[in-house]
Structure prediction request, 163 residues.
Amino acid sequence: MSGLPPTNRTQQGSELALQSDNELMLQVCDHCNTVLYPPRELCSRCLEENLSWRPVNARGTLLAHVELARSFEDWFSERTPWLLVTVRLQEGVSLICHAHASITRVQTSDSSKPVSVHVSICKDAGGSGVLVAMPESAAGEKFASLEAALGWPVAEDFGGRAV
Ligand SMILES: [Zn+2]
Prediction:
C-alpha cells in the first residue's frame, strides 16, 4: 500500500490543517460575514480580500453521497470503496466531506429521511486538514486522524498512520 495520501493543496487549502482541532473553522468574510468553502483568496459574494478563519456552526444535513470506486491517486485507489458526502451546513454553505465510519450507504441513499450530521476537521496521514461528517450522536468526539474517524486500524509501527 502507498504510504501517504496526496498532499497537494493551495495555500488557502493548507490553512485548513492549521484549524484541525476537531472544531469546525471555515473562512468568513470580514466585510459581509459570508461563510466560505472551499478556502479561497476572495469572498465569493463581495470580493473582499480580508477573510478570517472563524468557528462556525458545525451542524448540517446530508445532501448527497458518492462512493469512490477508482482514483488516479494510489492511496485512495487502494482503499476503495470510499464514501464521500455533501453536507449543507445550517450556515448556508455546502461542504464535501469524508463520511465517518458510522454513516452508512443506507442512510445516505434514503432521501425521505433527512440525516442530520456534525462536521469536524481532522488531519489525514499526510498532515492535511480534511472534513469529516459524523452523526449528531458523535458530535464532540475527538479524532487523532482521518483514519481513526473512518474506523480504520492504525498501526503504531507506521508512525500512527493507517495501513
Ligand atoms: Zn464578503
